[in-house]
Write a sequence for this structure.
């Protein structure tokens, strides 16, 4: 696998949707502890809508930017909530990062991946350490960048991203929430993993699997 | 075991609810063509009037839909349960509400709502609709006084939207409408108590856990943890705990006037709300604060959550005029 | 473990609730001096008008208190929770409501209410107040068709009291008021479903048992068992089961007009009620029955019981005029 | 004990109140099965109000009729419900049955007791077999009448009444309710004792104890 076609992206999104459906209850439960118990619903709904929208397009008559944009739009309109604008912005930025390409090489894909993290940060204005999905996405993007600059193959780049995301999500247990619903919890948010960070791990794992198995 | 709900399919619940609402209230509410989650007052928007768009997640009925009507909000954008609507239906509301004099976006201060409404505001600007935003932050339990901008908006929306809607209906300028909306928010203080959780239609599981003899003071309308959890107390003790905090912030003087809202979070019945109202009045009488008007009932709910909130809305001449200004909404009476 | 309630003392709950109600609604409601359980419309009774006295047990709020106001009931006598008031407060209501043209007693058909209101009627007669009684019997589930006189009165009171109140407000004769009240009852059909019990303030224990996945169709508003218990079904299936029975009795023709009330028994939220209303409309549309007006919300509750009822009120020109006649009550809007 | 003074009547009512308070939960539970779960509340409230009202009067300055009438009035005003008019009528009829007496002999007391049953019947229009308190009160009154006509002492008269009431209440389990809230239950009322019949036994037992121990 060296080039990633629109068809591969579409099947990658379909894998994310599948994984998220399986993870929905756990994410709702996590959100129930420090938020409003709906994060799994939002993520499942969002990526389910992405999958359904992408299923309707002809992979041979589209390009990666169009795939990401359609994913962004369908996610946003299905979800709203916090995750909607955050992931929609992430996906639009990914699309913008690969504008004009018909297929993606490894460098393109890593750029798209990093653009997602940047998009979430721009939209949500959260910093690392504020107990949000940023605490998984930013280290994951950084780890991917490092591995990429070290000349690692894409599989290992994404492995590194996943490990960093997992560690970042784990670290949110030690944080006091400063953004989103749980930011009013203060000390009571300690000890619990942020649901958005948890779902970021799920997304990144599914991306990795989608690309590796392509 | 799943919680019991009279629904068909959890993922269709919001749309089916809206079908039922539009069927029930055709004289008050209509959908924007092609945007089924954008609900407009039949008799609301008109040229030269500042438009008022409200919105937020479902599950708080009659908030937000019930507040759409002549003299109150022109349109409401409706999200999934406890989830902000996405920008598109908000934008459609802005278009429907726009009378060329600007559009106010008003909603409770939640991260998700802020992001979605802000995106919609940017999109509206591209359509040459000027949008200004006034967030409601009436929940005094949700952040300390030095971080008022972090506070949530809860049942006090009733008063905050009402004043803004009256200002718009009176054809005041965009600046004036915005000023009055902000002032109304600054004059509104809410505190809640939760006794038992609700469950979302898609999960059918309690959205938080609480002991069989516990209550949580300050809990948010989505089950966000509050400021103190402890054994259930008497109605008077609960009301006192809430009023102590509200009055501390409001710092009323003898002779001040307020309006009261005693609100059920869902399953707490009128009997309990009126028992609370009795105590609110005793306390206000004691400190010489006059009551101009009182609402008691289900105004801002969290599905079937058990619990209640008390809101005091401090009036001056202007806010009282706004409160008394007539409005015509499907689900309640005011003004 | 006791159920959770925001009360002070179970045995004082009704009186404290009434304190809170009078404090909240001074423009609409007042107490009869010396008879604290007799609530009168501030703007209700007047000379030459037939008086309308309603009443029954507490715990069904806004029934009965909420129905007191100009154009509806002149007075309500309030009993303990789920218990008829004794004759004395009923008599005081009759005196307060009497304008010299006769007084109608209207209440749901329960053995206890009948005995107490009848005793009060005898006492009123000794005071030269002529009383006539119209019982509401709208609960189609509570007895077979050949025993209509045994049926309970439930949420349909909303329509039945409304028509009678309008007739009284229009200064019609005693005979006419009584005729319209009876006709309105004959035109009103309710059926309910219960999902979870409530608990009385004095016992704080669930007033009936029901499986975690069960519902009971036809259950009464005091938890009286209904006609069938079975697994919880979808909103559409539940609504269909209720409508099948209602429509079978009402036997409407294409072109008939009705008003709808979809009522929560307490903790069932608006979302679920509107989903039910959507189905009611689908069914009525299918058989060509037009809907003149719809009410959805908490109108006749059983404290925090979970469940809902559907009422169809079949209109002719006269009943429609009565329904549309303005009234001014504290807790809801109609007409 | 051959004559029953107002003071004895007052203490008899106080014993009924005491017994009813202890029996409240059981009666609510019985009413929960076939009614609205409040019968214990009503009976406790009613006889509690009777006790309180009677505590305020001077036993030496009153007569049995006045005691019964005050009991009737305070019961009714505290309770309403079904039990209110039924027991208020019972007590007023008992008062009427002994009108003019300053103390009651055995015959007066039995007449008052029978008047109670008659009063409940007149007010409620229930027949024996319809699963109401009548199914305890009517056999009790009849048994008292029979024992009285056989010349038995008052203790035995009341023993006979109690036994008959107990049997009558027990028999309600086999009845289908035809009066009151539970009459809409049909067959589903089978197997359950009527709460009003159960509380009638409690009342009659307390009357017996109040008189026997006087
Ligand atoms: N400003 C923000 N920046 C980044 N992530 C955020 C921000 N606000 C909230 N989140 C993330 O969103 C998650 C909650 O998403 P979700 O439950 O879908 O939305 P909502 O809070 O509207 O119910 C949080 O766990 C957090 O990770
Ligand atoms: N018409 C009647 N005649 C005699 N007893 C009756 C009648 N109706 C009801 N009862 C009795 O009243 C009891 C219920 O009383 P209670 O629970 O206090 O009143 P409510 O039914 O108003 O809640 C029943 O168990 C039954 O014994
Ligand atoms: Mg959430
Ligand atoms: Mg949410
Ligand atoms: Mg009762
Ligand atoms: Mg009862």
């Amino acid at each position: 696998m060296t080039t990633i076609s629109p068809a591969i992206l579409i099947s990658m999104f379909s894998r994310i949707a599948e994984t998220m459906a399986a993870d929905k209850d756990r994410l709702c439960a996590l959100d129930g502890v420090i938020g409003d118990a709906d994060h799994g619903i939002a993520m499942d709904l969002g990526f389910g809508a992405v999958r359904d929208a992408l299923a309707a397009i002809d992979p041979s008559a589209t390009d990666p930017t169009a795939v990401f944009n359609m994913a962004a739009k369908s996610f946003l309109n299905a979800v709203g909530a916090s995750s909607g604008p955050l992931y929609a912005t992430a996906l639009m930025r990914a699309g913008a990062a690969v504008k004009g390409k018909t297929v993606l090489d490894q460098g393109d894909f890593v750029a798209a991946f990093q653009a997602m993290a940047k998009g979430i940060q721009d939209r949500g204005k959260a910093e690392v350490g504020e107990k949000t999905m940023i605490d998984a996405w930013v280290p994951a993007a950084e780890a991917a960048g490092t591995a990429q600059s070290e000349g690692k193959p894409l599989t290992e780049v994404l492995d590194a991203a996943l490990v960093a995301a997992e560690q970042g999500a784990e670290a949110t247990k030690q944080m006091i929430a400063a953004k989103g619903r749980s930011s009013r919890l203060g000390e009571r948010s300690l000890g619990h993993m942020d649901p958005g960070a948890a779902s970021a791990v799920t997304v990144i794992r599914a991306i990795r699997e989608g690309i590796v198995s392509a | 075991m799943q919680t019991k709900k009279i629904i068909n399919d959890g993922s269709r619940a919001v749309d089916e609810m809206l079908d039922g609402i539009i069927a029930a209230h055709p004289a008050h509410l209509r959908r924007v063509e092609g945007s089924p989650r954008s609900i407009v007052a039949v008799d609301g928007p008109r040229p030269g009037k500042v438009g008022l768009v409200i919105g937020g997640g479902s599950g708080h009925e009659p908030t937000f839909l019930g507040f759409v009507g002549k003299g109150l909000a022109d349109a409401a954008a409706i999200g999934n349960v406890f989830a902000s609507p996405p920008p598109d239906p908000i934008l459609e509301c802005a278009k429907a509400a726009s009378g060329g004099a600007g559009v106010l976006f008003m909603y409770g201060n939640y991260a998700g709502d802020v992001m979605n409404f802000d995106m919609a505001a940017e999109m509206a600007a591209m359509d040459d609709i000027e949008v200004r935003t006034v967030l409601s932050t009436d929940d005094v339990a949700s952040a300390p006084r030095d971080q008022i901008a972090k506070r949530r908006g809860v049942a006090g929306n009733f008063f905050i939207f009402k004043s803004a809607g009256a200002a718009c209906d009176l054809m005041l300028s965009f600046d004036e409408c915005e000023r009055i909306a902000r002032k109304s928010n600054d004059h509104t203080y809410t505190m809640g108590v939760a006794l038992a959780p609700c469950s979302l239609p898609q999960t059918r599981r309690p959205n938080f856990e609480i002991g069989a003899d516990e209550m949580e003071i300050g809990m948010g309308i989505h089950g966000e943890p509050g400021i103190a959890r402890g054994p259930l107390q008497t109605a008077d003790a609960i009301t006192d705990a809430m009023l102590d905090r509200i009055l501390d912030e409001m710092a009323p003087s003898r002779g001040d006037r307020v309006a009261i809202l005693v609100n059920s979070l869902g399953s707490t019945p009128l009997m309990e709300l009126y028992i609370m109202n009795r105590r609110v009045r005793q306390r206000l009488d004691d400190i010489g604060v006059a009551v101009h008007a009182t609402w008691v009932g289900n105004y801002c709910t969290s599905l079937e959550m058990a619990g209640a909130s008390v809101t005091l809305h401090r009036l001056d001449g202007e806010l009282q005029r706004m409160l008394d200004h007539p409005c015509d909404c499907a689900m309640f009476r005011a003004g």
Summary: Residues 64 and 101 of chain D are 7 Å apart (CA to CA). Chain D is about 70% helix and 0% strand. The domain at 6-212 of chain D is CATH 1.25.40.340 (Serine Threonine Protein Phosphatase 5, Tetratricopeptide repeat). The radius of gyration of chain D is 16 Å.
